[in-house]
């Protein structure tokens, strides 16, 4: 089939812009899905929408496994659960692929104001943080933002504990996360350069619950490592109110977290094997690991349950779709896309046979938009998919989809992706906290997600052409 | 002045019913408040409604003291704070009255499911619970309600851990609390009779946060004491989901709480001394102690702040009202009205000079109803108060007010009381949890409360007659 030849452009952003511009133009016509297939997809959609299967899967995962931080005993139990569940759901083939990564352990974690107003503070170590050496006592140096901290001279903090109080804003698409998360991911490096002994950040979250948000932080090879923790939003308010009185505020912080060697977990893969092109894959899934504080219902039990249910419902059809529908439950997304990278590596030689992918990793809110990242000539197919999604309240997005975090390595390898955008208005109320529990999931919203993924996966597996397979690559002959 | 003679009726309920019936009839006319006084009250109300004073007081208490469980170091700091704050607010007289009670300490508290699905559970000891002997391992015996537990034969549980899963319902007036709280207050006694080794209850709360609700529990002298704790609502859901699979569920519970001798705290009293009847008191206030998990913003920092601000605003008038306005911050309400009982005892001989009282102890939601418990001939005065409260959105309630928990001893001594009913729709989302923090308080709602208490206290202090002083007492010559 005719493939799009992309110009040599170094910047990925420019490539995407070029794709978008091209998309507006007239790509070569590509065969479309036939009416019988579209009608079958609509039936699947309606069946999925009234199915409780995803909720049952999610209840099973959160109840029978619960927390499953990468490298923990919960991780091991989650892998066993996933393998058994795929089999129980009637997937044709269930595969475990090893993923090795360093294991991080959470230890004891306490914080308190020592002076002038002794009070306990609720904190949690950021993922990857080193421990304090016993209980660290130091005055607090408050900064409203990471930028404010970055602006002071290096070495000027003299052992103080940096406190960054910027608050994440609430948006339906979660845009506030990207705006705020640098304080978490890179704050420790900046604070260490300034001479700090530790860093406390306001949780990257939109709630007002006294439950801190964990999440990955990073060190730099050439910068001293310092312990890093998040305060719950009410605790950050409290500390800010103390600080603004103008008197020195001394805090005691104890973290017991540490890295402990390597651990091997698994990507757990369930396939509904295609009838005529079984070696071509439509890739859906979520990540199996969670943080340790909650039961990982929204992050990302929901994504696992939605895509397992979608695959299972398609698998119950009398005839399998043409291509294989592959549901991947990725290992260790939270600590750096370890499972996703391992998947790409393990399947490097067959990336061209990964036709399109979408990951569900944004909770269980209803899907309201469908965006793609496909070759222009496949946009007609995307329009057809959108039509079948439309009764679910889903509108067409742009052709600049990210596909989800675990699809980054595959997208970088040129795979076409789609994003089924979920309403994340409440997502960051619970994200990475103990409050990430089953009750936060609305069963009807979850079923709407399954319906959308069922349509996406089934029609992609039945599409008469591909969606582009070396998108965005330099010298792509696609 | 003419006093109402009550008939000899043993039951307090019948007395109240009689009062209500009488109230409908024509009580003797009693002098009413004059227009100038009502107008002054309306000005005070409008000033209070736009005042930030209560919020400033509450921010000060929660920031500078925070948790102040009876008998803790926070209790001691709260007393010092309250004394200083009354003085700073210009109260004419500040008095500390000692209150002695046994001190309860919270220790380490952990719980986890051991089998079949190992998971941590979030628990907190109920106030007053004894410790476990190390980590207690036992199977769970689930009961949907306390009544279900009560119905089984004594001695039939053989060391199991009772789990009661009934869920509190949400109402504006908090009526769900009374329906649900017996599982907390008396569940340990019932469970021990059945042979249980411990009891876990679903938190008495309306939220879905992974923050358990503490609160007082009691033992019976002749029944074996067993440890008692509350699971957060999500944890109770989780445990119930495990139990309903029909396999035995084993839990490990460790509580380190204990009683430690006697502690003397203080009722802290601020008076705005009356101009012409300084030895007659209008009694408003809240309780100074809180539970230890949060900063006690809504329970009962709000009540302290509302009534301190109301007193302070009245104290700034050019002329003091006729009677003394007394703001009492009661010690140790949470563990059994210790401060309230001590107040009644200390002032037993002058109870007749306590003209009327109201306690604010239901958070910071807006006041929507004003109910009274006064002699029928004073209902005209209550109508006048209601008229001035009306622009705040307050409607007239019945004449069967409780007055608030700390006024129970005074009401039992015959004091007239009023209740300024607050909207408590959200109150039990945060009540007795770590989530009871300043951010849960809406400053405008708080100011509306101050406005209402200002009207109530000022007009009661200016009323030309009393409200009845030996209400409900047998042989009352009132």
Q: Give the end-to-end Cα distance of chain A, rounded to a whole number of Å.
A: 10 Å
User: Biggest β-sheet of chain A, characterized?
Assistant: 8 strands, mixed
Question: Helix coverage percent of residues of chain A?
Answer: 25-40%
Q: Which strand order spans the largest sheet of chain A, edge to edge or round the barrel?
A: 3-2-9-5-6-7-8-4
The top-level CATH class of the largest domain in chain A is Alpha Beta
Tally of distinct domains of chain A? 2
Q: Indicate the proportion of strand residues of chain A.
A: 15-25%
CATH architecture of the largest domain in chain A: 3-Layer(aba) Sandwich
Low confidence ranges of chain A: 1-26
Of all protein chain pairs, which has the greatest interface, and how many residues does each chain bring to it? A-B, 33 and 34 residues
CATH fold-level assignment of the largest domain in chain A: Aminopeptidase
Oligomer: homodimer
Number of helices of chain A: 15
CATH superfamily of the largest domain in chain A: Zn peptidases
Mean pLDDT of chain A: 94
What Rg of chain A do the Cα atoms give?
23 Å
Structural class of chain A: alpha/beta
How many beta-strand elements of chain A?
A: 16
Key traits:
homodimer, 478 residues, alpha/beta, Glucose Oxidase, domain 1, five-stranded mixed beta sheet, 16 strands
Describe the protein.
The structure is a homodimer of 478-residue chains. Chain A folds into 2 domains: 35-103 and 261-475, Aminopeptidase; 107-256, Glucose Oxidase, domain 1 (3-Layer(bba) Sandwich). The first copy, chain A, is 33% helix and 23% strand. Chain A has helices at 12-24, 35-49, 53-64, 73-88, 146-150, 175-180, 182-185, 187-193, 233-243, 297-315, 338-346, 379-389, 408-412, 427-430, 443-462; strands spanning 93-105, 109-115, 119-121, 123-125, 136-143, 161-164, 198-202, 228-231, 250-255, 258-272, 277-287, 323-330, 354-359, 367-373, 395-396, 417-422. Chain A has an 8-stranded mixed beta sheet. In chain A, strand 14 (367-373), helix 12 and strand 15 form a beta-alpha-beta unit. In chain A, helix 2 runs antiparallel to helix 15 (443-462) and helix 10 (297-315) packs across helix 15. Mean pLDDT of chain A is 94; it is low at 1-26.
């Amino acid at each position: 089939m005719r493939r799009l030849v992309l110009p040599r452009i170094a910047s990925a952003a420019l490539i995407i812009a070029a794709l978008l511009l091209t998309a507006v133009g007239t790509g070569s016509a590509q065969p479309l899905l036939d009416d019988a297939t579209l009608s079958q997809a609509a039936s699947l959609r309606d069946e999925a929408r009234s199915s409780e299967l995803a909720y049952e899967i999610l209840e099973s995962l959160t109840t029978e496994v619960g927390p499953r931080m990468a490298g923990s005993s919960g991780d091991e139990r989650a892998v066993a659960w996933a393998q058994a569940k795929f089999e129980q759901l009637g997937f044709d083939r269930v595969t475990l692929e090893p993923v090795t990564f360093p294991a991080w352990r959470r230890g004891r974690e306490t914080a308190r104001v020592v002076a002038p107003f002794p009070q306990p503070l609720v904190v949690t170590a950021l993922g990857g943080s080193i421990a304090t050496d016993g209980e660290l006592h130091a005055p607090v140096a408050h900064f409203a933002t990471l930028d404010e901290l970055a602006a002071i001279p290096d070495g000027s903090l003299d052992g103080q504990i940096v406190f960054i109080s910027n608050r994440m804003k609430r948006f339906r698409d979660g845009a506030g996360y990207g705006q705020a998360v640098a304080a978490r991911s890179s704050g420790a490096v900046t604070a260490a350069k300034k001479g700090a002994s530790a860093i406390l950040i306001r949780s990257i979250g939109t709630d007002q619950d006294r439950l801190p948000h964990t999440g990955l932080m990073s060190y730099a090879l050439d910068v001293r490592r310092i312990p890093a923790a998040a305060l719950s939003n009410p605790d950050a308010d409290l500390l800010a109110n103390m600080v603004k009185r103008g008197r020195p505020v001394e805090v005691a912080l104890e973290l017991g977290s540490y890295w402990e060697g390597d651990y091997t977990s698994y990507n757990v893969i369930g396939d509904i094997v295609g009838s005529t092109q079984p070696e071509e894959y439509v890739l859906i899934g979520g990540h199996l690991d969670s943080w340790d504080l909650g039961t990982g219902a929204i992050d990302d039990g929901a994504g696992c349950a939605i895509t397992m249910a979608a695959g299972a419902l398609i698998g119950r059809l009398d005839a399998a779709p043409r291509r294989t529908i592959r549901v991947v439950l990725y290992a260790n997304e939270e600590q750096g896309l370890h499972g996703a990278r391992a998947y790409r590596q393990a399947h490097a030689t067959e990336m061209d046979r990964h036709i399109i992918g979408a990951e569900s990793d944004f909770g269980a809110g209803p899907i309201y938009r469908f965006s793609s990242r496909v070759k222009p000539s496949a946009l007609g197919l995307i329009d057809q998919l959108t039509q079948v999604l439309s009764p679910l309240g889903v509108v067409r997005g742009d052709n600049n989809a990210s596909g989800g975090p675990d699809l980054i390595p595959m997208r970088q390898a040129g795979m076409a992706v789609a994003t089924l955008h979920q309403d994340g208005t409440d997502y960051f109320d619970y994200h990475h906290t103990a409050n990430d529990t089953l009750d936060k999931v609305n069963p009807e919203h979850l079923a709407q997600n399954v319906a959308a993924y069922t349509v996406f996966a089934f029609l992609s597996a039945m599409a008469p052409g591909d969606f582009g397979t070396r998108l965005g690559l330099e010298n792509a002959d696609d």
